[in-house]
Structures are given as structure tokens and as C-alpha cells.
Input
Amino acid sequence: MSTLVRTKKDVVTEFRTSEILEAARKIFAKKGFHDATVDDIANAAGVAKGTVYLYYRSKQEVYIAALKFGISQMYSALIEEVARYSTAEEKLKALIAAKLAYFDENSDFFKIYLSELGKLHTHPGTIDSEFKALYIEQARLIEAILKEGIRKKAIRSLRPDQTAFAISDIIRGVVTHRLMGWSKTRIAQDVDFIFDLIWKGIAAP
Amino acid sequence: MSTLVRTKKDVVTEFRTSEILEAARKIFAKKGFHDATVDDIANAAGVAKGTVYLYYRSKQEVYIAALKFGISQMYSALIEEVARYSTAEEKLKALIAAKLAYFDENSDFFKIYLSELGKLHTHPGTIDSEFKALYIEQARLIEAILKEGIRKKAIRSLRPDQTAFAISDIIRGVVTHRLMGWSKTRIAQDVDFIFDLIWKGIAAP
Amino acid sequence: MSTLVRTKKDVVTEFRTSEILEAARKIFAKKGFHDATVDDIANAAGVAKGTVYLYYRSKQEVYIAALKFGISQMYSALIEEVARYSTAEEKLKALIAAKLAYFDENSDFFKIYLSELGKLHTHPGTIDSEFKALYIEQARLIEAILKEGIRKKAIRSLRPDQTAFAISDIIRGVVTHRLMGWSKTRIAQDVDFIFDLIWKGIAAP
Amino acid sequence: MSTLVRTKKDVVTEFRTSEILEAARKIFAKKGFHDATVDDIANAAGVAKGTVYLYYRSKQEVYIAALKFGISQMYSALIEEVARYSTAEEKLKALIAAKLAYFDENSDFFKIYLSELGKLHTHPGTIDSEFKALYIEQARLIEAILKEGIRKKAIRSLRPDQTAFAISDIIRGVVTHRLMGWSKTRIAQDVDFIFDLIWKGIAAP
DNA sequence: AATGAATGAGACTTCATTCAT
DNA sequence: TATGAATGAAGTCTCATTCAT
Output
């Protein structure tokens, strides 16, 4: 029952939570973890500093929550997009396209995502494992596509896990270039390039 | 003249400089930029805090210098290694092998390198352009190999700059996995995997 | 009239008041004034934080009220006990025994009491005078016994007020030792010791 | 050697230390532990806030140090004073007189001392044991006098430790009254009163 | 009357940078 | 040139109090 009945408190909590998370995403993206202050976030969210601490125990917790929030949003979007196609080839291309599009539209979020990814090694043990799980989950999506492709002989025999990470990395790289303004080409063109490179690399002979 | 005659002052300066940089690399790698203190670095370098400020104007400047120091070291090593081979295929494989080996042997440095790469977007304008240049210079190395391969018809026709970045990203990804302990395989095996994937992707038909 | 007719409101008020006071006593005793939060007290009392402020204007006010509440309880107990004896000697011994017993049974309350006594000087003007009155009232009880003893020649001629405080202090000291676990002897033994010392000191020759 | 040669650093350290301790004593006495801010102390000491942390790791540490500083000062004074007399009777009277005088002259310090004594029970485990030791050491001084008196038959047979605490408590009580302005009499008179009461209570028949 | 979410002042502590020696 | 004591700005987090419901 309690899961069906949303009390008013639940509504407020959800509202505040997303309000704060949205603000945090923006601020962290702009300033990075250390240079962002809790005050910044509170202001951006339109609440007082103390209010932030009503919903999160520390600045770190806000950070992680903002990260997860965005990642799971993206993850859902990808899943949905991929599901619309049937062959491994189509699925892979769709995933690349969706990810590039998502990051283009949510560049602020992308900034924290990448920054965190880069820091993963530096301070293992802190945010580490939580984030690692989310990161790996992403790769699993690609891995699943690869496995299916291999089973159907569309893709040559290779280690799906390792390859999944490699593909993930290429995408990340291109996304980075786009975001930094190093790549001036249109999305479609980048998608084609990545896909072409990868597909040539993995397609069955 | 001043480049020929090294005064005692120059010697001391160079000695202090490398001492500090070596220490900084270690400390930044262990703690990250914000959690590393100037005191930490000074202690590790065996000098007083004030002395650090005699050679660098700020903590940031030490950071950048340490970064450059390490990158140029690696760059030289790569150049040298690549020069030992003649075909694009061999050169590419040698480069991959050398980079993986280098990072395995200098994992502490690698940590700052990657962390910084991840932050590039977050604080554009700060360290940004200096580092971007160094990053791009790395890619140029691969680009040169690709161009030569294309000219000699060993590699199919594709945009060398874009592809160079893609290759760079895959390598970076694998290095990351190795460092985080996600990849338990030996270097040689990872080299083979990467090279195989890439070469299939770029080789002329 | 209002003292005869107890409206429902009065009943509720009294109930809430004692509920809160009882909780406050416990919490303040455990954590001290500053480390106890209004939330702690509200929770322990089973009411919401805001409710506390319906009955008391500030945390301080709760504190003082809790103090008074406990002291007057003890005072009543002492009066009653002393009244059961007739000679000064018996009364004094009874008072000592009763006080030691009371504190042994209400060690939590005792903690705030002592703590406050110790702070009296530190922040004169705050709680000061209110509490001072309660403290002195305690001493008056002893003073009355002394005066009667002097009148009946059982006690030698000495300043009753000053002596009353001295006796009060000795008792307080022993109570402290008991509470801190420094004194392992049974109550009866401590009572005998204190009484013996005092009585030798004040008895008529 | 190093104990003989006082470097300049030692001198500065000692100067700063006592400067800060003197200021801390004053501020803590006026405001109590919680209401005193580190800024208050720094200002009173004529240094910046950060400087305080150069010599003490936390506010608490400053507090404890200030406490010890004062107590050991007083302890030395008492030892010296007591040593000037030979009989237990004289020694005891001298000790009472000296303690009353000391507190009259250092009423600010006395305030923290008493306040801490009162809090001993409230938060056992924090400052507790350190302070307890200092407190007990004080009582030992009285205990030693009592033991000697008992051996020489000047004092009747009683438990020296328990009695020492009792005497200590009486003195503390009188000191309190004096400090709060409740006792308007001159020191000498209070000394006589306390001594008379105690001596009658403990003297051999 | 009762609640508890929201507020925001304020405290401790850290550390990059300066500067007198 | 080298030192390291001193500075003080700035950041995180707590909690007494308020007030709309």
C-alpha cells in the first residue's frame, strides 16, 4: 500500500530532490566538484543551504546522486532506442547515434560524467565502486549486442567484454572531441565514422 | 652563450626543478589536485614550502609543469620506439605496446594524466589549452603513421585525424582498465587485442 | 476559579509539559546542554520539534525548567524525610542518607544538577539567579537543622549559614565521587563517614 | 645538549604558546567552552586564527592545555607554600589559605577549573581522564598531610583518601561562594572558619 | 494544538600564499 | 637563495528557531 499511496510528503521530497539534483548537475558541470560550493547548488536550486542537507548528508552524496540520476536517465534512453532495432548492426549504430545525441543535448551532465570517469583511478575507494558499477552497466549493453551478433555470425569471434569496453571508449573519445569543440562535423557524420571503423573491426569476414 | 655556459645557478635551478616536479608527480598522483597540499610536495621534495614558490608562482603552475614533464618524457620514449620500425603496421603495434608498457611502469603519472584528461572539459580555459596541445601532439604521432600507411596503400582511405583520436581513445581505455585492475591479462595479450581490432578496422581491403 | 476548574486544555498542557521535561532531563544529562539538540528532546518526548516551542520559548527555557523540575522533586523528598526525625543529629544524618540515596537513584538528573552548579560562575546573569535561588534553598534546609541544634546546645556555636554551605559541599563531593565510580563503598558507609566527620566538626563540646 | 640550547624557534614557540594559553584562559572563563570561539581566543592573543592551529590541533586541545597550564601553576604554588610549615595542623591551614588566595587572585582561571570539574561526569571519556588525574593529584597533597598527622597522632584515625576529598570539597565550596560574591568576609575569616570546622572534625581527641 | 520542512547564521578547520629573517 | 611562521579567506556542516499547513 505504502508504495501505491504517495503522500504529500513524498511529492515534496521528490520535487526538492529533483530540483536539487538538477541544480547540482549544472553547478558541478560548470565548476567541478571542489570548486562548486554547497551554497552555489542551494542557490541554483532556489533553496537555503540547510535544505540541501535535509535531503543529502554531504556534498559528496549530492554529487553521487546527481551522477546516478543522469546516468540512469541516459541508460533508459539508450535501452529504449536500441530496442527499436533487430540486427546487431542496426542496434550498434543506433546506440552510437543515441549516445552522441544524448551528450550533445546534455553537455552539462556529460561534463561531470567524464570528469568522474577520469578520476576513477585517482581516489579509488571513495565514489569508486558505485560509479564503476554504473559504468560497467553501460558496457554490458554493448556487450549484449556483440554477443547476439556473434551468435548470429554477423560479428566475428572475439572477446565481447573487452571489445565492449573498447567501443565504449571510442564513443567516449568522440563525444569528448565534440564537446570541446574540436570536432566541427555534424553528428551523423561522426556516427558514420565511428560505426564504420568499429564495424570493419568486428564484422565477420 | 647562456645556453652554453651553465652557471652554478642554472645547475641548482635545474636540480631543484626536477626534484620538485618528481615529488609533485608522486603527490598529485596519490591525492589528486585538491587534496595534495603544497606542503606535501615540498616535504616530498625535501625543501621548504617557500622554496616551491621560488620556482613556481602557484600550486597550479607546479601541477601543469609536472604534467608536461611526464608527458614529454613519454613522448620521447614513444618517438624513439616507433622510429625503430618501418611499416605502418609495425609502427602502430609498437606504439600501442610502448604506451601500454609505459603506463604500466609509470602508473602514478598515468593517474594525473588521465584525471586531467577527464577534467579538460570541466574547467575550460584554466589548464586547458596548454594541456590540449600536449594531448593533440600525442595524436599527431598516430596520425603521421596513418598518413604514411594510407599513402602506401596499407591502410584504407579514411580521415587520419579523426581516426588517430579514436585509436588514442581505445588505448587510453585499455590502459584505464589495466590500471584499475579490471583487466587481468598480460600486456602482450591486450596489445594483440587492440591492434587486431584497430587493424581490421583500418586496413586496406 | 481557574485554580479549581481544570479544563481539558490544562490537562493536556500539564501532560505535555511533564513529558517534555522528563525527556529533557534524560537528554541533557546524557549529552550536556550544547550537545543536546531540541530534536533529541522532542523525539524522546514523542512530540514534534515545533511542539516543544509551544510550551517553551527556547532551548534554554527547557533546560531551566527541567532543572527546576528535578530539584523541587528532590527538595520535597528531603523535607519529608527530615520531618520524620526530631533531634538535629538524627535529622542531619537522615538528610545526608536521603540525598545520597536520591542521587544514586536519579543519577541522570544529578548530572545536570552538578554540571549546572559548576557553570554557575561561568555565565553569571544567564541562568544564574534562578538557579542560585534553588541552590540556596537547599542549604537553608541544613541551616534550619543547624540553628535548631545550636539552640538546643547539641551543636556548638558557629555561623549556621556558612556551615550549611560547607556541609552541602561535602555531600556534593561524595555524591560526585560515587557517581564517577571513584567510591566503591556502599551508601551506608559513606553516610557514616560524612556524618562522623561533620558531627565531630560541629558538635558541642 | 638540545635541552640546554634554546633555539630561537623554541623561544618563539614558548612565547606564542603562553600568549595563546593566557588568552584562552581568559576567554574560556568568560564565555565557557562552547560560546568561546577560536577567533575570540586568537584576537585576545593578538594572532590570526590560523596561528592558533599552528600550535594546537583543535579548540579542545587549547582548552585542555589552558586547563593544565593553570592547574600546574597552582599546584606548584601550593607545594611550595605547604613546605614552609612542619606540623600537619599548620600545613593544612597554610594549604587552605594558599588555595583561597590563589583563586581570589586568579578568579578567571578558577572559573574554567570549576566548570570542568562540574562537567566531569557529564561527558566521561573526553577530557575526563586527563583532568581527573590532575584533580586527584590535588587531593593527594591533602592526603599526604593527613597521613603524616595520623602517624604523629595529631589527627585521629580515619580514611585519609576519603577525608582528603571531603576537605577538598569544602574548600572548593567556599571558593565558589567567594567567587559568586555570596561571601563578603575577608579571606582570613573564611580560612579560620574552614580550618576550624575541619580540624574539629579530624583532630585526635 | 501540532507538525516538521525550511531557514541561515555561525563555528571549526584547512591551506595557498606572503614575507621577514 | 632558502626558510617556515603567520595569515585569513573560504568551505562544509549543524541546529535553534520560524511558520505555513
In short: Chains B and C do not touch (no CB pair under 8 Å). The first helix of chain B runs from residue 8 to 35. Residues 37-39, 49-50, 53, 58-59 of chain B lie near DNA strand E (CB under 10 Å from a C1').
